[in-house]
């Protein structure tokens, strides 16, 4: 049945098999950014696992301070976590969340979801989900980490700026029908908690193992734009910290910690 109503927290919580993630949900019709609201709640001492969802965001943001279009029909939400780790390790949460999102899409809908470094989930080569983790620190350790996830669920292409339409897809576009966002979110929250436990127990290897299985771009030729630099080579792996390892033409290897990956197939299409 087509879903016309908003997301209902009570419906999500019914049958939610988590210990803490999603046990408290704050739902809004419109906010600037769910990450903003979650960060405020976190600084006021809210419990770990608290989730903030909004039907739309007026100032949704993505990586590298980019705007994140957040029209009606998407799933825009942030989770407050309190991992006892050093700030540099918090970025691994993004990889864990990407695995959780890609697996949930695969398992619920049978779609061939894949991960593109560092945090994009793609279906049919187009972006369907993005993740932005923001941390606040106390002394040497993380006080809270807010993991913000945006899923193009029941969004239509015409709700996005024209310049983005070719590079985005949604679950509705791929499945040719609307999904039940509450059911999807419940399954995703369960998956996030599953992988978050590995992270908290310092078993990052297990997350990386799954990440590699989903990262079909590994082994392919890519262009990486990092800060002001552009490098080309074969994406060979990610290291223990989630940095991308690129093998250059001269055989040397470079590690990239931030930037954008463009597949060579996409480059040819642009020519
Ligand atoms: C990216 O791919 O650049 C990351 C996009 C992250 C978007 C989500 S939507 C929920 C949360 N609130 C935000 O403002 N951003 C994240």
Quick one: biggest sheet? 7 strands, mixed
Whole-number total of structural domains = 2
What small ligands are held by the chains? Answer: biotin
User: How many runs of DSSP E, i.e. beta strands?
Assistant: 12
Question: Mind telling me the C-alpha Rg?
Answer: 18 Å
- Supply the CATH superfamily name of the largest domain: Bira Bifunctional Protein, Domain 2
| Overall mean pLDDT | 94
Explain what the structure shows.
The chain has 271 residues and is an alpha+beta fold. It has two domains: 212 residues, Bira Bifunctional Protein, Domain 2 (BirA Bifunctional Protein, domain 2, 2-Layer Sandwich), CATH 3.30.930; 50 residues, Roll (SH3 type barrels). The protein has eight helices and twelve strands. A seven-stranded mixed beta sheet has the order 1-2-3-7-6-5-4, sandwiched between helices. A hairpin with a 3-residue loop joins strand 4 and strand 5. Helix 3 packs across helix 6 and helix 3 crosses helix 7. The radius of gyration is 18 Å and the shape is globular. The model has no long low-confidence stretch (mean pLDDT 94). The structure holds biotin. Biotin binds next to helix 2, strand 3, strand 6 and strand 7.
Q: What is the topology?
A:
Elements: H1 9-13, E1 25-31, H2 34-43, E2 51-57, E3 75-81, H3 92-109, E4 114-116, E5 120-123, E6 126-138, E7 141-151, H4 162-165, H5 171-175, H6 181-200, H7 204-214, E8 221-226, E9 229-238, E10 244-247, E11 253-256, E12 260-263, H8 264-270
Parallel strand pairs: 1-2
Antiparallel strand pairs: 2-3, 3-7, 4-5, 5-6, 6-7, 8-9, 8-12, 9-10, 10-11
Helix pairs in contact: 3-6, 3-7
Bound molecules: biotin.
